[in-house]
Design brief:
WH-like_DNA-bd_sf, RNA_pol_sigma_r3/r4-like, single chain, RNA_pol_sigma70_r4
Length: about 180
C-alpha cells in the first residue's frame, strides 16, 4: 500500500514538474503583465502570484481528469489576481501599469492568452458585453499613450488635494495658494 502511494506521489510530482518546466515561463510572463511589473526587473509580486496559482493547481492535479493543466493554472492565476487586484494599483513601471487591475486582467486573458470573450466573462463573473467594453477601453488607453487618470476614491476613502494636503472638497483657508479674489 505504501509503495503504491509513494509511486503515485512520485509520478504526480514528475508530471507536475514537467508541466511547470514547459509552461512556467509563459505563465510567469502573464503574471508579470497582470501585476504591472517590468519583466527585466524584480518580479517578486508576479512570482508570488504564480506560486499561489501553481500550488492550487498541484493540489487539484489528480482531479484534473483530462482538463488542461495550463488552462486550470491560468484560471487560478486570474482568480487570485481578481481577488487581490487592489494590491496592484500602484505603478510598477510595466507595460500595462497604466491600466486598472480589472482592465489588465481582461486584456491579458483576451489578447495575450487568447481566451474567448465568453470564457473570460464566465471566469470573471461578468456579462460578455462588460468584458468587451473593458477590453475596448483598455486597448484605447494603451494606444493613446496617455497615462490613465487615477480612479476616483471609493466610498469611505478620503482623497486629498495634492497642492494643499487638505481633504478634497473641503473649504480652503483664506490666503491659501490658488485661492483669493
Amino acid at each position: 500500500m505504501r509503495e503504491r502511494r509513494a509511486a503515485r506521489e512520485s509520478r504526480r510530482a514528475r508530471e507536475f514538474e514537467a508541466f511547470v518546466a514547459g509552461a512556467g515561463g509563459r505563465l510567469l510572463h502573464a503574471a508579470t503583465l497582470l501585476t504591472g511589473e517590468r519583466p527585466t526587473r524584480d518580479t517578486t509580486a508576479a512570482q508570488h502570484l504564480l506560486t499561489a496559482a501553481l500550488a492550487r493547481t498541484y493540489a487539484r492535479w489528480d482531479r484534473l481528469r483530462g482538463e488542461d493543466p495550463y488552462d486550470r493554472t491560468r484560471m487560478e492565476l486570474a482568480a487570485l489576481f481578481a481577488r487581490g487586484g487592489h494590491h496592484y494599483r500602484r505603478p510598477r513601471g510595466g507595460t500595462l501599469d497604466r491600466l486598472a487591475p480589472r482592465e489588465r486582467l481582461v486584456l491579458v486573458l483576451r489578447l495575450y492568452e487568447g481566451v474567448a470573450e465568453e470564457q473570460t466573462a464566465a471566469a470573471l463573473g461578468l456579462p460578455v458585453e462588460r468584458v468587451r467594453a473593458i477590453c475596448t477601453r483598455a486597448v484605447s488607453v494603451m494606444r493613446s499613450g496617455v497615462p490613465r487618470q487615477p480612479s476616483p476614491p471609493r466610498r469611505g476613502d478620503t482623497a486629498t488635494d495634492a497642492t494643499t494636503g487638505t481633504p478634497a472638497g473641503a473649504p480652503k483657508a483664506a490666503g491659501a495658494a490658488g485661492t483669493g479674489p
